[in-house]
Structure formats: structure tokens, C-alpha cells
């Protein structure tokens, strides 16, 4: 009958790894592995940066990600003192209540574009409308230098969150400059 060999349980802890004649403790070996991993991760980070440097990245604006429900009950806290800032704030409120659209000044359901909201809130005052559009373009150019008109800026978005945020920034800008 053949004899089977059954492995026996170890009677003592495995011997420490030795380098030459010096035995390394577990802590020393772990520290060496940690140092090697740190070097490897640093090299990987540099390689990643080199491989992705050509990919254009646009910064994320938190206001574009965190949104509030667009309801008619959202009212501005207080009107601005300057006429242009007040116009831009009213235009923003109109977009919040009536809706935002792209491709036309006004849709059948009452939604408006940036230009349409400013125009209706200016109530025929062409000078106020022109000053409001000028301040809005200043705010647009400050964040998006490539826009050359309010309608083209408005029409590049799939939803109204960015246009309405810029309209609020333009109102703040007009108030700051006392317009």
C-alpha cells in the first residue's frame, strides 16, 4: 500500500527574510514595500499627466451643476438700485417663471431667450435695453471669451442654467458699476 505524505502544521513562525547576513523585520519589509509603491504611484501619475496633457478640459462651475427647481414662487430678494442691474434681474426672474428657450426670442409657451427677456423687461426703452445687453456681453466675455453676441451665446446651450447664471452675474456687475 502506498504511503501518503500529509503536510504537518508549522511549529514556528516563518523565518525573516535576510539580506546577506542581516534579518529584516516585518516592519522594515513593509516600509520598503511602501517606499517602492510610492515611487511606482508617482511614476504612474507623471505618465498619466503626459498621456492626457493634450485633452482640453473645461472647468466645472458649481452653479451649473447644483440647480434649483424653476418655479414661479422664486422671487428675487430685493430689486437692485441701478436701472440696468434691475433690468437684468427682472429678465432673470422672467426666465425663471416663464422658461428659457434657444433658437427664438419667444416660444409659443412663453419661454424666452436672454435677448427676448431683456427686451420685454426694458418695456420699449431702447437705451436701457442696449445698456443691459452691453453689460450682459461684458459678463459673457469675462467667462466665455469666444461669444460675439447674446443670441449666439444663448443658442449654444441645451438648457437655461448657464444663461440664467450669466444673467445674474451681469446684474451683479451692473450694480457694482452703478449702472
Indicate the overall shape: elongated
By helix and strand content, what is the structural category? mainly alpha
- In percent terms, what proportion of residues is strand? under 5%
N- and C-termini, Cα separation: 105 Å
Question: Share of helix among residues?
Answer: 40-55%
Largest beta sheet: strand ordering: 1-2
For the CA atoms, what is the radius of gyration? 32 Å
For the biggest sheet, the summary is: 2 strands, antiparallel
Catalogue the unreliable spans: none
How many runs of DSSP E, i.e. beta strands? 2
> In the residues, how many domains can be counted?
2
**What sequence of helices (H) and strands (E) makes up the elements?**
EEHHHHHHH
Number of helices: 7
Quaternary state reads single chain
Mean pLDDT: 83
